[in-house]
Amino acid sequence: MTESQLFNLPTPLQLESGATLPAVQVAYHTYGTLNAAQDNVVWVCHALTANADVLGWWLGLFGPSFFFDPADYFIICANVLGSCYGSMGPLTPVTDNGEPLYHEFPLITIRDMVAAHDQLRRHLGLTKIHTLIGGSLGGQQAVEWAIQQPTLFENLILLATNARHSPWGIAFNESQRLAIQADHTYYSATPEGGQQGLKAARAMALLSYRSYEAYGTTQAELTDEKLDHFRASSYQQYQGDKLVARFNAYTYVALSKAMDSHNVGRGRGDLATALGQVQARTLVVGITSDVLFPPIEQQLLARYIHGAQYVEMESQFGHDGFLIETVQITNFLERFYSRKLVHS
């Protein structure tokens, strides 16, 4: 991962919950060059456990020779508020004696994340954005931002996301938080707190990110003779250990709660009224095998965003298809834009 740039908000951030975060720092990456017309900006909103280095985790869609090529576009991705990749989060020292807040970190929402993004945008002097794109929690940020500032964005790309987080999705997240909080070390107020719980939570989450077919293809046994130590078991252990090595339990709880908070209709009458405020030309992408954000949720977005185009991707990879199926997504984007724009 390349080194992040840092932006410090000039004033404390008032959160939607009523709490205040002092001295908020936002980590971000930029790629490419802003052109003279300033009309080649692509802003990426990342998902739950990702970071600001979009070329590291969305290669195939972003990067040299791919659809969003830094030779053509000025690409920005900011690490979300509450994360552990440079932006202010539960492990950031904030108390008078320099200690993090850990499990006492205040509730943050998608709207709080967008507020931090928009302060960064203004700091960078950007008055228009060619494309705003995000999948999953990133898509939740993108649709919220496009509602708040409808004239800022020319194009909006929403993948495997929704207008309001579902009871099904909230239940998945709460189950994972129960696993984390059942680990007594979570309350130890140390960076390593809750690691075994986080491992279990990640294994649970993976079941919602993938599909029956994907596990059948990649984790099936090569023999009928096994009694124990199955490939699928090892895979869950491996994925849990991978996240523990790069993330922390407190951040996972904070960001999953932010996802639960997502509801564009809050304070705006209803979902239809809120989504009707979007003015960006919009492409909504669903995934046939997504059980966490099923296609009915993307169809709702497309129904109420004026003029939105809806496409559905055939994939066995479930929710993670928005990160994996970059060839299909590129084809959708090429049709959406009619032609690949090259900026000078």
Automatic annotation (TrEMBL):
<dbReference type="InterPro" id="IPR029058">
    <property type="entry name" value="AB_hydrolase_fold"/>
</dbReference>
<comment type="function">
    <text>Transfers an acetyl group from acetyl-CoA to L-homoserine, forming acetyl-L-homoserine.</text>
</comment>
<comment type="similarity">
    <text>Belongs to the AB hydrolase superfamily. MetX family.</text>
</comment>
<keyword id="KW-0808">Transferase</keyword>
<comment type="pathway">
    <text>Amino-acid biosynthesis; L-methionine biosynthesis via de novo pathway; O-acetyl-L-homoserine from L-homoserine: step 1/1.</text>
</comment>
<feature type="domain" description="AB hydrolase-1">
    <location>
        <begin position="41"/>
        <end position="323"/>
    </location>
</feature>
<dbReference type="InterPro" id="IPR000073">
    <property type="entry name" value="AB_hydrolase_1"/>
</dbReference>
<feature type="binding site">
    <location>
        <position position="202"/>
    </location>
    <ligand>
        <name>substrate</name>
    </ligand>
</feature>
<keyword id="KW-0028">Amino-acid biosynthesis</keyword>
<protein>
    <recommendedName>
        <fullName>Homoserine O-acetyltransferase</fullName>
        <ecNumber>2.3.1.31</ecNumber>
    </recommendedName>
</protein>
<keyword id="KW-0012">Acyltransferase</keyword>
<feature type="active site">
    <location>
        <position position="290"/>
    </location>
</feature>
<feature type="active site">
    <location>
        <position position="319"/>
    </location>
</feature>
<feature type="active site" description="Nucleophile">
    <location>
        <position position="136"/>
    </location>
</feature>
<dbReference type="Pfam" id="PF00561">
    <property type="entry name" value="Abhydrolase_1"/>
</dbReference>
<feature type="binding site">
    <location>
        <position position="320"/>
    </location>
    <ligand>
        <name>substrate</name>
    </ligand>
</feature>
<keyword id="KW-0486">Methionine biosynthesis</keyword>
<dbReference type="InterPro" id="IPR008220">
    <property type="entry name" value="HAT_MetX-like"/>
</dbReference>
<comment type="subunit">
    <text>Homodimer.</text>
</comment>
<keyword id="KW-0963">Cytoplasm</keyword>
